[in-house]
Task: inverse folding
């Protein structure tokens, strides 16, 4: 991304969508890479700030921000607040007035594009809970919010934001959205004399499930978007806005491996269950989106899959008390025994960050590995952690 986006195109930024995976060391890593952070909650903001992440490189998203979240965002000096509801404007103003400052904001628009992905991770459609419908006319939500912001002494409206959906493999939906948004920029200039100085394209770039598959190149998305931005802005005589991307999964998914221990193997007629010491509590993505993963045995990652007399279906399942607690259906893996370790490839995104302690399972540890050296980044939860704050009354 640095080479193909930041260095190739002037006036660009990358904001890592921290919801995909955030720990304090991760924030540090992102800081050292020269990127910024997108946060969506008090917890994400606090985690980043507590790691000393520079506030001006943080952007606060979220469709239901609390006053407390906006207060911390304004007071800590975050670079942008991405407004998702007209009511937020007054709250941001209130806290900015108290601080006697002008808060930089963007307005999130719903581009009216139904992304080709799982319906739970498609966000750009017109009736989405996210963003302002992008209609520009007197009385429309977007027009009124822009007029209001332009008049405000405490709001500095820099531009617009959109995010079309997640886990996308081609740029079609991004391009469709961008085409519409450039039209909106044109209308805003003509009707309100509003200049879009910044445009945030959101994230959504897909990740593959296996290191032997070619990764999606981020320029598959950024090249056509940047070319379109330049050509259309020229065509409509618009200033070329700063372009910002907000990738989460693309940055972290393929960098993450989850290690499980096989507890037991149950061989039934035509079906084999390989049960491991984790499951939907640390990775709910199969249960939620039927997400696909590949796993290998740690002791021999290159071993061919064991063929259990043809038609046998092999499932890698977790230890939660649910039949839907599946990590992989139709797994292709070598013959395993209880005690073996397996590695679930490309599971860095939306796993640890979406983990729960269902069945009072302890959250796993997180380890960073580089050049054969490992560092414990998050400790495995202790039993004490499991009952922390749980008062016996
Ligand atoms: N920006 C905004 C405003 C977002 O809502 C999201 C993701 C991103 C950026 C980053 O999207 P990414 O580049 O990671 O696709 N839990 C789901 C994914 C939910 C994504 C939510 N928003 C999953 O496990 O697939």
Result:
């Amino acid at each position: 991304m640095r080479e193909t986006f930041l260095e190739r195109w002037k006036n660009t930024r990358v904001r890592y969508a921290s919801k995909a995976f955030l720990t304090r060391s991760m924030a540090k890593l992102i800081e050292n890479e020269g990127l910024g952070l997108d946060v969506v909650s008090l917890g994400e903001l606090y985690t980043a700030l507590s790691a000393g992440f520079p506030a001006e490189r943080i952007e606060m998203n979220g469709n239901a921000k609390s006053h407390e979240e906006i207060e911390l965002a304004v007071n800590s000096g975050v670079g942008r607040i991405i407004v998702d509801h007209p009511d937020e404007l007054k709250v941001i103003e209130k806290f900015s007035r108290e601080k006697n400052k002008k808060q930089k904001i963007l307005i999130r628009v719903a581009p009216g594009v139904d992304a080709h992905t799982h319906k739970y991770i498609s966000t750009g459609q017109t009736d989405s809970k996210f963003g302002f419908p992008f209609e520009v006319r007197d009385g429309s939500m977007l027009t009124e919010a822009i007029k209001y912001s332009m008049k405000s002494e405490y709001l500095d409206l820099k531009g617009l934001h959109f995010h079309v959906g997640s886990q996308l493999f081609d740029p079609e939906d991004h391009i469709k959205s961008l085409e519409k948004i450039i039209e909106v920029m044109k209308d805003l200039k003509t009707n309100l004399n509003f200049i879009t100085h910044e445009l945030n394209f959101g994230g959504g770039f897909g990740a593959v499930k296996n290191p032997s598959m070619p990764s999606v190149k981020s320029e598959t998305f950024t090249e056509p978007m940047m070319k379109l931005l330049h050509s259309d802005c020229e065509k409509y005589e618009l200033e070329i806005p700063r372009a910002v991307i907000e990738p989460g999964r693309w940055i972290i998914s393929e960098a993450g491996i989850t290690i499980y221990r096989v507890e037991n193997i149950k061989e039934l007629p035509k079906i084999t269950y390989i049960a491991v010491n984790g499951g939907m509590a640390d990775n709910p993505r199969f249960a939620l989106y039927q997400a696909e993963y590949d796993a290998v045995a740690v002791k021999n990652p290159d071993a061919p899959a064991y063929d259990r007399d043809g038609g046998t279906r092999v499932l890698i399942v977790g230890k939660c008390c649910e039949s839907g607690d599946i990590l992989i259906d139709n797994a292709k893996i070598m013959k395993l025994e209880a005690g073996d370790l397996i590695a679930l490839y490309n599971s860095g995104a939306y796993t640890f960050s979406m983990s729960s302690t269902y069945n009072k399972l302890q959250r796993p540890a997180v380890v960073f590995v580089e050049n054969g050296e490992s560092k414990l980044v998050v400790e495995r939860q202790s039993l004490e952690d499991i009952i922390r704050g749980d008062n016996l009354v």
About this structure: The mean pLDDT is 96.
